[in-house]
Amino acid sequence: MSGHSKWSTIKRKKGALDIKKSAVFSKLARLIQVAARGGNDPEMNFHLKLAIQKAREVNMPNINIEKAIAKGSGTGKDATVIEEVTYEGLAPGNVGLVIEALTDNKNRTVSELRNIFNKNGATFGTPAAWQFETKGVLQLVKGSDSEADEMAIIDAGALDFEDAGNAFIVYTAPKELDSVKSKLETSGRTVKSAGLELTPKNKTVITDAQLAKRILNFLDILEDQEDVVNVYSTLEVSDEILSQIS
Q1: Is the pLDDT reported for residue 188 higher than 50?
Q2: What was the pLDDT predicted at 16?
Q3: Pairing, β 95-103 against β 235-236
Q4: 95 & 151 share domain
Q5: Same domain, 41 and 156
Q6: What number is the average pLDDT over the span 53-73?
Q7: What is the count of structural domains for the chain?
C-alpha cells in the first residue's frame, strides 16, 4: 500500500495490477480503526486524517469509513482488538525490508510472513529499520508545465522530489506534510495521495534482471498478505532493468 515504486507505476500503466477492492477496503478499515483510538475527529487526530485520506483515494464508501471510526473509537458494535505490528528482514540481494501490519492474531501473522520469507529465499527477523527514516510522501500529478510544477514543489517547502513518469513523488518533513499538500493544492495542482512513509537512507541497487524480478515478485506477495498494510524496501532498480522484466 506504499504504492510509489516505479514497478507499481509500470504495472498500473500496463493494466496488470488487479486491484482487489474488498481486500484493500478491509486493510484500510483496520488502519482507520487503529487510528481512531486516538479520537474520532480527523481534524484533531492527524493519523486518522491520513487513514481517511488513503481510504478516499481508492473510493472506499463513506459508510465503511464511518463504521471503522466508530469501531476504533469505541462507539461502534463488534469491537475487535487490532494490534499494530512491525516486522523486519532482508529480501534476496540483501535488500532491507520493514513490514507494517494490523492483526487480531499476531501468531497467525508472524507464521504466515515467516513462511512467505522462507519460500522466497529471504531472511525473516534481521534488523533493517535502521536503514529507513520517516518522511511525508506525496504523489503530485504532473501538469502541462513540469518546470512550473517543480517550482511549485520547491515553493511549497518540500525537502526533495523525484520524477516518476506521470507524477512527481514529493518528500517533506513529517510535520510539514499537511502544509506542503495544502500549498500545492492551493496552487491549482492535484495531489493524488499523501501520507507518512519510511524512506530508505541509502538504496540497494540491483542490476541483475532475474534477481530484480524475483525480489519484486516477493514484494508483491508480501503486499497481498491480508494483514500487511505497508511494505518498505531499500530496493532500487533502474528503468533499463525494469523494461526487461515488466
Answers
A1: yes
A2: 35
A3: unpaired
A4: no
A5: no
A6: 86
A7: 3
